[in-house]
Amino acid sequence: MKIAILGYGVVGSGVAEVLKTNATQITKKTGKKIEVKHVLDLRDFPGDPHEALMTKDFAVIENDPEVKIVVESIGGETAAYDYTKRAILSGKSVCTPNKALIAKHGAELFALAKKKGVNMLFEASVGGGIPLIRPYIDALCTDQIQAVAGILNGTSNYILTQMSENGTSYATALKDAQNLGYAEQDPTADVGGYDACRKLCILLSLAVDKQVNYENVRTEGIENISTEDFAFGKALGFTLKQIVSGKVYESGVGALAAPFFVPLAHPLAAVNDVYNAAWVTGKTTGNVMFYGSGAGKLPTASAVVSNIVDAAHMQPLVHGWAPEEAKILPADKYVTRKIIRVTCENPAEIKKAATLPQYPNQAAWITTAESEEQTAKSLAEIKKTSGIKTIERVLRIYG
Predict the structure, then answer these.
(1) How many Å separate Cα 10 from the centre of its chain?
(2) Where are the beta strands (DSSP E) in the chain?
(3) In Å, how far from its chain's centre is CA 40?
(4) How far is CA 213 from CA 52, 254, 368, in A?
(5) What is the mean pLDDT of residues 179-189?
(6) Whole-number pLDDT of residue 361
(7) How far apart are CA 363 and CA 387, in angstroms?
(8) Which of 76, 120, 217, 231 could form a disulfide with 255 if both were Cys (CB 3.0 to 4.6 A apart)?
(9) Is 209 helix (H, G, I), strand (E, B) or coil?
(10) Is-contact 74 6, C-beta < 8 A?
(11) What residues contact residue 385 under an 8 Å CB cut-off, 6+ apart?
């Protein structure tokens, strides 16, 4: 069976490598030898093993009847969307790790693939190398997903881990992540929470069989997190993680992507560095956690290849969701406990507050569970309190 790879970057070249390394096992699984026939990229790769397969013209792939599966690893939403749609219309299955493409155009592409009798598969779009989408979809056949949460961005998790374990500043940890190849030169999608939000919306869309629009989900990043936040969090029994949290109600979907304090006893607190985890709650199954490498060339490529194996069986799979847009509940109604940290004249006078000798003018305490609305009112009162100089930080507690 012939396939084509669009984009010969980290993931695309990884797919080619995994197909070669695991060729014997893949042939046993599919009953067919999977061969790369074309590789689309605007760049040249002199000396590369696939140099002779390179093309800059997608029409070559689109019009080749031998190519049955296309791997889209270009990324983004523009060319990736155009090529994916054209590939499906030409009767080819598509496998992609592109969460931006799936989060925005998934419903349309799934419907088109169903109409054409091919597959639109996206295992690597959430959780990188973690086998997540397939078991998640299988669970939906027998259970009702009530909530999904987790750590779904390796870059932000690496930065927060360095700040927590080594006392590294945010700026230094970000620079280290960029030097190690974990973060782009423009890291906004990762540290701003947008990448993780898209992944959350994919999981929620699958759960409710409707389009959960990430543009309507409150999203907050880690750019302003400081070493003080970690110090006071630890004193109160928490660590900080960039968390996505979604809940399914009869009235709609609650969703939020933001930094949360996580209790040290919770399994998500132990997810460090570039690792990812998804915490899924089913009505009858209860809590299940998926954990593993959320990024990286070969783990992500392996997840894509697992989709290639599925598509090679030439049997359409029922994946995806309907185009109807799900109702996203107002973020102001989202209820959590919070940790409030303030600068004040005499921290010892604040009841049940944590104080630290290295920050003698600060105190932090845990609120009762309250909505964002209620917290805003509480903060207005705190500002009027004698002795309170500044509200330094308000962060939610997960769970």
Answers:
(1) 18
(2) 2-6, 35-40, 54-55, 67-72, 93-95, 120-121, 145-151, 218-219, 238-249, 252-263, 275-282, 286-293, 335-336, 338-344, 354-356, 359-366, 370-371, 388-397
(3) 26
(4) 41, 12, 30
(5) 91
(6) 96
(7) 12
(8) 217
(9) coil
(10) yes
(11) none
Reduce the DSSP state of residue 240 to 3 states and report it: strand
Query: For residues 54 and 44, is the Cβ–Cβ distance under 8 A?
Result: yes
Which residues have CB under 8 Å from 209's CB, separation 6+?
A: 321, 322
Residue 164 is predicted with a pLDDT of 97
Tokens of residue 357, six digits = 């000798």
Q: Is 199 a catalytic residue?
A: yes
What six digits make up the tokens of 293?
A: 């490498």
Is residue 318 predicted with pLDDT exceeding 80?
Answer: no
The partner residues of 257 in beta bridges, in order of sequence, read 219, 244
pLDDT in tens, 123-173: 999 999 999 999 998 888 889 999 999 999 999 999 999 999 999 999 999
In which residue are the tokens 């010892």 written? Answer: 348
Which burial class, exposed, middle or buried, applies to 149 when counting CB atoms under 10 A from its CB (0-12, 13-18, 19+)? buried
Cα-based distances in Å from 320 to 122, 137, 304:
9, 9, 16
Distance CA 163, CA 170 (A): 7
Q: One-letter amino acid identity for 15?
A: V
Q: Could you give the 3-state DSSP secondary structure of residue 140? A: helix
Catalytic residue, chosen from 199, 247, 297, 338, is 199
CB atoms within 10 A of CB 150: 31
3-state SS, residue 335: strand
What pTM does this model have?
0.95
Nearest C-alpha neighbor of 271 from the set 366, 154, 364, 368: 154
| Average pLDDT of the chain to the nearest whole number | 95
Q: Can you tell me the distance from the alpha carbon of 73 to that of 11, in angstroms, rounded to the nearest whole number?
A: 6
The pLDDT tens digits for 269-285 are: 999 999 999 999 999 99
